[in-house]
């Protein structure tokens, strides 16, 4: 990923340093698979590394909702947000996944979703107790409609827990906004590994990484490529970090919703972060979004 | 009446020429290049021939195109018709179908005109010219492309879709290219874009030659030779303080 930034700097010179102020440093989230868990210590494996995170009575666990330490079972995947001092686990999300895209097939309690060319088609089971909450945000559960839920993975596929968007999918296009390489909108997350982001307007020509049939994004953001750098600030927590574009957010480009975590963001998803990057910036995976300012390029 | 029918040949000539140039300069996809070729051939035939077979073929192709647009409007309206290349990317509406239908009718009205397009175009003063201007004005009024073109001129270069072919044309016409032309092998090994710049990388003896081509109106091209580039990843797993 650094290769393109180095070549760019070689031919154009170093990009001017941009600071989104006021800004706080990012947290350093941890992700991995549970190896062992006791009331005071969580042991994870990430690749070949083993990680140990101390836990306290203040540590909160999410497993399809608020859960106890008993859900920290061996073999489950977790994302951990550390406390401000970085010494212990503040919040742990267990087996959390997100599915967003276009409905291909919809039955009474099962939905099949096309998440775009870079992500797998996914079958989502909607349990009866969560149906009313999800139907409020997705009243037209039929092929062609947008769908976005936060859920947990299980042996039978993804189990939907709550809607990931604050509005139904079928929304009129937004009015045009002025240009500039600093844009404001909504940041969401997608089930991807490592740190980085999917960006809704990756160039389709050459090796930039975009899709030939990608829709025009709802937010009028400029063109970038896989490997481009962005400065991202969570406008709710004020935490900011450098984030690299990992893939084209072709599915996210279709969403024209707003985030209402702290005030109302302008319409359109301008960035989809991996869970680690989303938590680094102070986001809550169960909430699904935060208002964001992004400085692109450089 | 003859002036009206002869004016239809000129209308078809102008529309086919614009469609051919639009699709060639800025194709939305590869299929459009094939359509551009067909329209170019039709344009040429209308210009040099008054044979009834040419008139019939033109009318039949436009009738078929009207039917195809109707199908596309039902199945994939959001992709645009691509009638004039990537500029025709707005949603297919009834007016787009009406426009092609009117052109099919114009082709029908031109049946039986024995004069070639070239001969008619030598005498566009009088009623022929009036019909030509009025019809082209009406077609423009019902077309989404003029509005799209106006919007495009207001879009800054970092938000404008620029085909790779246009970038390569700017690159090959630049002084930087002329300096390095003899050292550059056939195809670039990597091409990507960031805001108003597109980067084109060639593998040359002694390293990689990186061209940065401006996508703005200044058409600036910069170049540098990079001797060694590593591809280290930045997306490390987890912070050091929790490692044991």
Fold and architecture overview:
The complex is a heterodimer of chains A (298) and B (244). Chain A is mostly beta strands. Chain A has helices at 2-12, 128-137, 275-280, and strands spanning 30-38, 41-46, 49-62, 66-67, 77-82, 89-94, 96-106, 110-114, 122-125, 146-154, 157-163, 182-189, 197-199, 229-234, 240-248, 269-273, 289-296. Helices cover 9% and strands 40% of the residues of chain A. Chain A has a six-stranded mixed β-barrel with strand order 12-16-13-15-14-17. A five-stranded mixed β-barrel of chain A has the order 1-2-3-6-5. Chain B has helices at residues 2-25, 30-48, 52-75, 94-109, 117-121, 127-142, 145-154, 164-172, 175-180, and strands spanning 190-194, 197-204, 207-214, 221-226. In chain B, a hairpin with a 2-residue loop joins strand 2 (197-204) and strand 3 (207-214). Chain B is built from nine helices and four strands. Chains A and B meet through helix 1, strand 1 and strand 3 of A and strand 1, strand 2, strand 3 and strand 4 of B.
Task: Give a brief rundown of this model.
The complex is a heterodimer of chains A (298) and B (244). In chain A, strand 2 and strand 3 (49-62) form a beta hairpin.
Distance between the termini of chain A: 14 Å
Strand content of chain A: 35-45%
- Give the strand content of chain B: 5-15%
Q: How many E-type strands of chain A?
A: 17
InterPro entries (chain B): Methylamine_util_MauE
Keywords (chain B): Membrane, Transmembrane, Transmembrane helix
Membrane topology (chain B): Multi-pass membrane protein
Organism (chain B): Actinocorallia longicatena
């Amino acid at each position: 990923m650094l290769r393109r930034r180095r070549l760019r700097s070689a031919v154009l010179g170093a990009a001017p340093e941009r600071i989104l102020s006021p800004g706080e440093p990012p947290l350093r989230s941890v992700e991995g698979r549970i190896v062992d868990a006791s009331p005071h210590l969580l042991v994870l494996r990430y690749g070949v590394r083993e990680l140990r995170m101390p836990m306290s009575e203040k540590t909160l666990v999410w497993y399809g909702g608020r859960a106890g330490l008993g859900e920290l079972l061996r073999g489950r995947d977790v994302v951990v947000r550390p406390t401000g001092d970085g010494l212990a686990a503040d919040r742990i999300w267990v087996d959390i996944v997100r599915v967003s895209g276009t409905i291909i097939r919809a039955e009474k309690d099962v939905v099949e979703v096309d998440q775009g060319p870079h992500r797998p088609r996914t079958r989502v089971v909607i349990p009866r107790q969560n149906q009313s909450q999800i139907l409020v945000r997705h009243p037209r559960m039929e092929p062609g409609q947008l769908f976005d839920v936060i859920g947990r993975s299980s042996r039978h596929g993804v189990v939907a827990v709550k809607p990931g968007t604050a509005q139904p999918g079928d929304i009129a296009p937004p009015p045009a906004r002025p240009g500039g390489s600093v844009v404001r909108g909504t940041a969401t997350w997608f089930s991807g590994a490592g740190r980085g982001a999917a960006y809704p307007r990756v160039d389709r020509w050459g090796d930039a990484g975009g899709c030939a049939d990608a829709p025009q994004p709802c937010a009028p953001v400029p063109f970038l490529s896989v490997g481009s750098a962005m400065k991202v600030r969570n406008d709710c927590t004020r935490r900011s970090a450098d984030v690299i574009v990992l893939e084209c957010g072709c599915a996210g480009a279709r969403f024209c919703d707003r985030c209402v975590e702290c005030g109302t963001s302008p319409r359109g998803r301008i960035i989809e972060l991996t869970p680690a990057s989303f938590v680094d910036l102070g986001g809550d995976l169960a909430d699904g979004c935060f208002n964001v300012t992004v400085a692109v390029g450089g | 009446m003859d002036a009206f029918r002869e004016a239809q040949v000129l209308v078809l000539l102008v529309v086919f020429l614009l469609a051919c140039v639009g699709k060639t300069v800025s194709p939305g996809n590869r299929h459009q290049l094939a359509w551009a070729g067909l329209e170019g051939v039709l344009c040429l035939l209308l210009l040099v021939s008054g044979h009834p077979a040419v008139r019939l073929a033109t009318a039949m192709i436009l009738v078929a195109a009207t039917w195809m647009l109707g199908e596309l409007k039902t199945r994939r309206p959001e992709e645009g018709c691509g009638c004039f290349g990537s500029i025709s990317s707005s949603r297919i509406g009834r007016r787009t179908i009406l426009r092609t239908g009117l052109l099919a009718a114009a082709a029908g009205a031109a049946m039986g005109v024995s004069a070639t397009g070239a001969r008619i175009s030598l005498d566009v003063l009088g009623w022929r010219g009036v019909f030509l201007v009025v019809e082209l004005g009406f077609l423009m009024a019902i077309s989404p492309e003029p509005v799209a073109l106006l919007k495009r001129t207001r879009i800054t270069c970092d938000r404008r879709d620029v085909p790779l072919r246009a970038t390569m044309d700017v690159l090959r016409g630049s002084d930087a290219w002329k300096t390095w032309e003899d050292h550059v092998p056939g195809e670039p090994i990597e091409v990507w874009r960031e805001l108003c710049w597109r980067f084109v990388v060639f593998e040359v003896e002694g390293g990689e030659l990186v061209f940065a081509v401006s996508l703005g109106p200044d058409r600036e091209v910069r170049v540098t030779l990079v001797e060694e580039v590593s591809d280290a990843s930045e997306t490390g797993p987890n912070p050091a303080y929790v490692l044991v």
